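Renewal narrative, Specific Aim 1. Our central claim is that a sequence can be written position by position from structural information alone. The example that follows is taken directly from our test logs and has not been curated for this report. It begins with the structure tokens describing the chain, in the order in which they were read.
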């Protein structure tokens, strides 16, 4: 049976992040992708110029209609924008019992543009984090979810992962891409304990969509039946390679996208 993953996220008109990055990732990893769009953004590689939020009842309807027909085997959640959309998504997920959910708590774009209302953070904590199989915050997002300071080292990342897991998520992956040093180190905490995943830090500014790509890669692997730890490790390897090949693309004049199809496209 064809593995199918559903992404619930915002649209990136420049194609590097959001729904577009998720669908590219699903395809690259051999998974059929379905989507429910939560918001339209007018953006390019320089930043977000405008956001048009989709009505919450229509977001829920997209999810329910897809779930009624397609055999969804994993869900990835990205940009949600408002408390009302979070509530609508949580309700619609009741139509997909037992399906693993990867929640990427998108709050601020790499350009600094705000993608989640400040008053929606508590709703995200209370309503969706406990529903998640895995949450994948970066360092700033983990700090915002906990109402504290950004972790400065692996010890503090571990402590924040434990605090986030106490909010109800079955597993937490704190991403270290915003840290410094020769390696990008992520911390995974699940029911079996803690796992550190390291990869060489790639010297490039073309990192648009890395968070979306990582979470959707995990969802794709889960959709194909992988264990959580295997899915996270494979997703980390895929994203690292996509970043390493990002400079092979010539897209935009700002922070360019990672190369989702690095294994298939020949260099220019």
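The sequence written for that structure reads:
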């Amino acid at each position: 049976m064809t593995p199918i993953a559903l992404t619930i996220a915002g649209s990136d008109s420049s194609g590097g992040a959001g729904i577009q990055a998720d669908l590219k990732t699903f395809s690259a990893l051999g998974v059929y992708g379905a989507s429910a769009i939560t918001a339209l953004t007018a953006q390019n590689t320089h930043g977000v110029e405008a956001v048009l939020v989709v009505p919450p009842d229509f977001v829920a309807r997209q999810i329910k209609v897809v779930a009624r027909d397609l055999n969804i085997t994993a869900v990835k959640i990205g940009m949600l924008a408002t408390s009302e959309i979070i509530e609508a998504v949580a309700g619609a997920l009741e139509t997909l019992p037992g399906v693993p959910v990867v929640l990427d708590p998108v709050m601020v774009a790499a350009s600094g543009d705000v993608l989640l209302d400040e008053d929606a953070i508590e709703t995200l904590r209370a309503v969706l984090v406990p529903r998640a199989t895995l949450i994948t915050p970066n360092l700033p997002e983990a700090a915002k979810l906990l109402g504290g300071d950004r972790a400065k080292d692996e010890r503090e990342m571990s402590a924040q992962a434990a605090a986030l897991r106490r909010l109800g998520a079955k597993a937490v992956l704190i991403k270290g891409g915003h840290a410094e040093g020769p390696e990008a180190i992520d911390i995974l905490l699940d029911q079996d304990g803690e796992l550190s995943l390291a990869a060489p830090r790639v010297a490039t500014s073309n990192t648009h969509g890395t968070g979306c790509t990582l979470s959707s890669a995990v969802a794709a692997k889960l959709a194909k039946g992988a264990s959580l730890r295997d899915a996270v490790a494979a997703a980390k390897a895929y994203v690292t390679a996509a970043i390493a090949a990002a400079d092979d693309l010539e897209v935009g004049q700002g922070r360019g996208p990672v190369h989702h199809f690095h294994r298939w496209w020949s260099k220019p």
